[in-house]
Amino acid sequence: MPYSTAPDGAQTFYKDWGTGQPVVFSHGWPLNADAWDVELKLAADHGFRAIAHDRRGHGRSTQTWDGNDMDTYAADLAALINTLDLRDVILVGHSTGGGEVVRYAARHGSGRVAKIVTAGAVPPVMVKSESNPEGTPIEAFDEIRGAVLADRSQFYKDLSAAFFGTNREGSAVSQGQRDQFWRLGMQVGLKAAYDCVRAFSETDFTDDLRAVKVPVLIAHGDEDQIVPIEASAKKAVNLVEKATLKVYPGAPHGIAGPYQQAFDKDLLDFISS
Description:
- It is built from 9 helices and 8 strands.
- It is α/β, with parallel strands linked by helices and 273 residues long.
- Strand 7 (216-221), helix 8 (233-236) and strand 8 (243-248) form a beta-alpha-beta unit.
- Helix 4 crosses helix 5.
- The radius of gyration is 17 Å and the shape is globular.
């Protein structure tokens, strides 16, 4: 299996499908590169080189004790892109991955990044504060950490309902999708799963968004129960110079079902334009 080496020696697993302009996908918590398989094939089928990695601690990558933070995630992504010598890169990030690609673009991607797509992404910042009253209270993230420690298997099974919106009437997402969420989640190391909660919830990406000068498509479902749209996408679009916000009515956080079909069409149109 192919790996790149991070600055601290951690091994980052990646998939590399097709040829052409590179499209690099970053996954959400607690998943891995497999969550992007449909989009990887879609991009590769349409003449792109589609690449997705397992974030450190996740999937097939090294389970490090340290480095489970957004600065290190972005540095790991930089190491992968530098190793493969990718240019004119299109970055695609879901949820936590949306934060990762934005931080990479702002701090490491000068001259390499052509476009960015985020979906259900965490920027600008998730946690509630005096300056971010629309955010999610820190107690909610404390509960996530507690549940990960207490019984992460059952927690991931339960979380899949809100993740895919199957707790809402009319959901077309299958039990198989929920089972896959659990399967990928169980591949995350406990330390990485625990630490990443702080990384995705408390990292402030405001300055990163302002630093991005390439076109950005910000995709978000207006029924996202994990990363509410009012505190994320609707703020982020006002911070990015060349941003377009695409709202998917009734769509959840997880990219599946009718939402996936609509998003994949928009993704392909954007990266092909």
